[in-house]
Specification:
CATH topology of chain A: MetI-like fold
Order of helices and strands of chain C: EEEHEEHEHHHHEHEHEEHHHHEE
Largest interface: B-C, 48 and 49 residues
Shape of chain A: elongated
Oligomer: heterotrimer
Helix content of chain C: 25-40%
Radius of gyration of chain A: 22 Å
Chains: A mainly alpha (254), B alpha/beta (335), C alpha/beta (329)
Strand order of the largest sheet of chain C: 6-7-8-3-9-10-12-11
Largest sheet of chain C: 8 strands, mixed
Number of helices of chain C: 12
Strand content of chain C: 15-25%
CATH architecture of chain A: Orthogonal Bundle
CATH class of chain A: Mainly Alpha
Helix content of chain A: over 70%
Chain lengths: 254, 335, 329
């Protein structure tokens, strides 16, 4: 499922929203494998293109959140002291806001663009990553191999990057995959509310919203995008689980 | 060893314990047999992976959920076969007649219950004492183990005590109902030397007072020396030598036992003495091959050794058993 | 005292930790000793006595609160960060938990290369070949071990790899913090023998920390005994064993049995010196051992005995040391 989604952007031809209207178009367009939506647009192509949004937002915001989380969490867990206090305070503050409320507030204010969306969702995921990075750093920084590194003359920066980061990276990666799933749903909610990238760009949440009115007669318009979202999140979660299983088998002694 | 007059307190025969692992079933204890009389101490000595902890847990039948024992394994406690007893009957025995101490007191004590309550628990359960009586008796027990200010310690949680005090509390718990058999799995390994000495003295005192038998597991031969009537050396799940303590230290016949004795640094040797090494490392329970398990590392191995496993039996002397085709000579030393 | 310049001079070192709520733990108080080139000094004591803290303070990780540490003539506390870093290859350490001493995400061989890589010695190929050489020297199969991860090695193999890593930069001082305590007896002998061979091969000075007196005696020329954060006795190994001067040393020795000695239950009913060391938060006045000492007198409660030379080569901190000709004051 996810591979198909990723292939969509280069795969399914040019901008679908405009093409769908001319019924006198090429035979390809007359075959609607999954049906059409309320405006006659081919669901399958819209799904594939909408996946672009979900994937881009999912990966980009998670990458942003993870990077920020590592940049803050690693030094916080290693040095402790005042920097740590500030970081923990920032984490707690952001966590105090329910994600949706924060998103709605900021996007409403700043405008629904892809960049804004990625930025705010990244911010929302930051506390989780920071916590994971910090907790793992705390655990590893105390281990003897870090002391051994100091004894060999490694500088602090070297220790953070070459000793601690490789160990913290894996748990953060596993966490990231789970977060991707959640972010896809979050983006879906935002586009459902009309606060994601504006139409006519297709997005899954937007497609679900559009199908709301015809839920009784043509439920497939909403349900198919919802099902696709479910499958995507599920497979990402499975990926995360599998990865976790693999790395903890290797580190079993620890 | 068997005495003609009484039957032994504990009689273990062909005990084997199998554990399922990812690589298949593994035999951690392999056909162990021994008897123990009232008031006697057997020290089981071995290194990691030899199966001594599983042996301890097998006797009161506290094995992990998926462990299995053989059909022929028999554990007779006071003539009763523990292998076929129902859980309820076993529970009446555990704590009351068989006490157990584990290596790490931090995990054998419940971190969220006060120490006094934990000690009193078995008194309440087994001897039907009321709460107040049980606590009073628990305080007395704690005092006997040498904990300072026992009344105060009773209302402490385990993390508030030092390692030595925790282990003493665990001992008080195990001895609360004056069991006939105490199984101690490396009870002093995590403790300081001076604390260890006191705890060993305590155990010995209680043994004498209560005619209590003891199975004492350790990797430390010198600890066993101070405490045991009989020593059994365990390797790869089997007993490879069993003898009364003085005889063991004087003339251990099994090459592994001898090597263990020789590889410990001796205080009277000068500094920088090179110790007698045993090559290789202790076998993991996964490797099993025919023949003697020690053959790959044995300096005295002959061609027969990797092919045929030597049985554990007495040779020249009735109560000195060993399992070896080419044992260390009686008068010699090492290889 | 010999004329040779000591490799290591530790002068009146004190280490404290913040234990929250304004309290400080006095892990080490006023410790002083010397280590000559090629000498092995054992540091013995029970848990919490401060031996590990002292070792780390010597290596400036972190530097002690008070006191001086001189290595090869240089006052380590006075050196700038960079100069101290440059000195590090000359003093290395191995730890009790050898598995945790290796980065789980890196190949063992690469960890052994690290000391060279950090100091920028040689190129990758040279470093690798030196690492493999070192692995062979410590008794490991270089080709097989280089590419393994730490969790794939046994305890003994891990410790050998750590020794290889510590020695690859050819240090002058090797600090060993309980290197064999978590190893099986048979493996322990292997590692102790290995350390002995390495000591001779690399002409190392060693600071060997352990709670096991027999092990320490096997390794060390002289032994220092520590109690409650303070050094109590320093003496040549054989003399310490045969004629301990400090009552605590005597207590330690009485608690250690050897398979060749008869059971100590029958032979002696020792002064029940039961009890625990005093709190390290607020060290009491007088001698820290007085509460457990059978030979204590009034002065012991009031005045802390300083370390004094009682015979050539022997120092004790006791008002009434045993086995010596000193008359009680």
């Amino acid at each position: 499922m996810d591979l198909r989604n990723l292939k969509a952007p280069p795969g399914s031809g040019s901008d679908p929203p405009l093409e769908r209207y001319d019924s006198g178009g090429s035979p390809k367009l007359r075959i609607h494998l999954l049906g059409t939506d309320t405006m006659g647009r081919d669901l399958l192509s819209r799904l594939l293109h909408g996946s672009r949004i979900s994937v881009v937002v999912g990966l980009a915001s998670v990458a942003a959140g993870a990077t920020l989380g590592l940049m803050a969490g690693l030094p916080a867990g290693y040095y402790r002291g005042r920097f740590d206090t500030v970081v923990v305070f920032a984490m707690d503050t952001i966590l105090a806001f329910p994600a949706i409320v924060l998103l709605i507030g900021v996007i409403f204010h700043l405008g629904p663009t892809l960049a804004n969306l990625i930025a705010v969702i990244g911010l929302v995921t930051f506390p989780g990553f920071c916590r994971t990075a910090r907790a793992n750093t705390l655990a590893y920084a105390r281990r003897e191999f870090v002391q051994a590194a100091k004894m060999m003359g490694r500088r602090d920066a070297g220790i953070l990057i070459r000793e601690i980061l490789p160990n913290v990276f894996m748990p953060v990666l596993v966490f990231a995959l789970l977060v991707v799933g959640r972010v896809i749903v979050l983006e879906g909610a935002m586009s459902f509310l009309g606060l994601s990238v504006p139409p006519p760009t297709p997005s899954w949440g937007g497609m679900i919203a559009e199908g709301r009115e015809v839920l009784g007669e043509a439920p497939h318009v909403s349900l198919i995008p919802a099902f696709v979202m479910f499958l995507t999140v599920y497979s990402v979660n499975l990926l995360g689980d599998g990865l976790r299983h693999r790395i903890y088998r290797g580190d079993r002694q620890l | 060893m068997k005495s003609a007059a009484h039957p032994p307190l504990l009689s273990v025969s062909r005990l084997s314990v199998h554990l399922p692992t990812e690589e298949g079933w593994v035999r951690t204890v392999d056909g162990v047999s021994f008897t123990l009389d009232h008031g006697r101490t057997l020290a089981v000595v071995g290194e990691s992976g030899c199966g001594k902890s599983m042996l301890c847990r097998a006797i009161p039948r506290l094995l992990p959920f998926r462990a299995r024992t053989d059909q022929e394994s028999r554990i007779l406690f006071e003539g009763r076969e523990l292998g076929v007893m129902k859980e309820r009957a076993l529970n009446a025995i555990r704590g009351r007649e068989i006490g157990m101490i584990f290596q790490d007191p931090m995990t054998s004590l419940n971190p969220v219950l006060k120490v006094g309550i934990q000690i009193g628990e078995s008194l309440e359960h087994h001897l039907n004492l009321g709460r107040r009586q049980a606590l009073a008796r628990a305080a007395k027990l704690l005092k006997e183990t040498g904990v300072d200010s026992p009344e105060q310690r009773m209302s402490h949680y385990p993390h508030q005590l030092s390692g030595g005090q925790r282990q003493r509390a665990a001992i008080a718990m195990a001895l609360a109902c004056a069991p006939k058999l105490l199984i101690a799995d490396e009870p002093t390994t995590a403790l300081d030397v001076t604390v260890q000495a006191e705890i060993l003295r305590l155990l010995n005192r209680r043994r004498v007072q209560g005619n209590m038998a003891m199975i004492f597991v350790s990797h430390d031969l010198s600890v066993a020396a101070g405490l045991a009537h009989e020593i059994a050396v365990m390797y790869a799940g089997k007993f490879v030598e069993m003898a009364p303590a003085p005889k063991f230290f004087e003339r251990a016949r099994h090459p592994y036992a001898r090597a263990l004795l020789d590889s410990v640094p001796r205080p009277r040797d000068p500094p920088h003495t090179i110790l007698k090494e045993i090559g290789g490392q202790p076998p993991s329970p996964m490797d099993s091959h025919p023949g003697c398990p020690f053959a790959p590392r044995c300096p005295r191995a002959r061609s027969r050794c990797p092919e045929e496993e030597p049985p554990l039996k007495s040779h020249e002397e009735e109560n000195h058993q060993y399992a070896c085709w080419n044992p260390v000579p009686r008068n010699g030393r090492g290889s | 005292m010999s004329e040779a310049t000591p490799l290591l001079e530790v002068l009146d070192v004190t280490v404290t930790y913040d234990a929250g709520r304004g309290r400080r733990v006095h892990a080490v108080s006023g410790a002083s000793f010397r280590l000559l080139p090629g000498e092995a000094l054992g540091l013995v004591g029970e848990s919490g006595c401060g031996k590990s803290s002292l070792a780390r303070a010597v290596l400036q990780l972190p530097p002690p609160d008070r006191g001086k540490v001189r290595f090869a003539g240089e006052d380590l506390g006075r050196l700038s960060g960079e100069l101290l870093r440059r000195l590090r290859p000359r003093m290395q350490m191995i730890f009790q938990d050898s598995l945790a001493s290796l980065n789980p995400r890196r190949k063992v061989g690469e960890s052994v290369c690290d000391p060279l890589a950090i100091m920028g010695e040689g190129d990758r190929k040279e470093r690798r070949s030196r690492a493999k050489e070192m692995l062979a020297t410590v008794g490991l199969d270089p080709e097989a071990t280089f590419h393994r991860r730490p969790h794939q090695l046994s305890g003994g193999q891990c410790q050998r790899a750590c020794i290889a890593r510590a020695l690859i930069s050819k240090p002058e001082l090797l600090v060993c913090d309980e290197p064999v305590s978590s190893l099986d007896v048979s493996v322990q002998a292997q590692i102790l023998n290995l350390l002995e061979r390495m000591r001779a091969l690399f002409k190392l000075s060693m600071l060997f920390i352990s709670h096991d007196l027999a092990v320490v005696k096997n390794v060390s020329d002289r032994i220092a005994v520590m109690y409650s954060g303070k050094l109590r006795e320093i003496a040549p190994s054989s003399e310490l064993y045969g004629k301990p001067a400090h009552p605590y040393t005597a207590l330690l020795l009485s608690a250690v049995t050897s398979p060749s000695l008869p059971s100590f239950f029958e032979s002696r009913d020792s002064e029940s010196a039961g009890g625990e060391p005093p709190s390290l938060f607020a060290p009491p006045a007088g001698c820290p051992f007085h509460s457990r000492c059978p030979g204590k007198r009034e002065i012991c409660l009031e005045a802390e005995p300083p370390m004094r030379v009682v015979e050539p080569g022997r120092e004790v901190a006791c008002h009434f040391p045993l086995h010596t000709k000193k008359t009680p004051e």
